[in-house]
Design brief:
128 residues; alpha+beta; 3 helices; 4 strands; 24% strand; globular
Length: 128
Amino acid sequence: MEFELLPHRDSEQMYEKQMELAESSVKNASNIYVAEQEQQFLGYIELAEQRDFFTNESVAYISAIAVTPEAQGSGVGKQLMKKAEQWCIERGLSQLVLDVFKANEGAVQFYKRLGFEEEVVKMVKSLK
């Protein structure tokens, strides 16, 4: 979460929620793939199968992906994304979907370089 959040988001609360989600994923691990080298954790990706709201077709969804700061720029993220594509194809699914915070410009550009396109923009208006 090394990017600026909208004012209505509390960075500490966001961090705690991310940790809660990661712990839950590990406890219920079924489609989590870990990148490591010499027993050092470098990152992970969690995958799920979901239904597209409009077509009702099954799609592969990247629930979470994270790479340690030390591993960023080393190709670990690309390897994890390649695993996601492989997982998607193995299940006969034709789309790989993910969500990313717009302010996370580095991640947005990373996904675009891998061929992802923006489809839906979530709009937020704070009323407090």
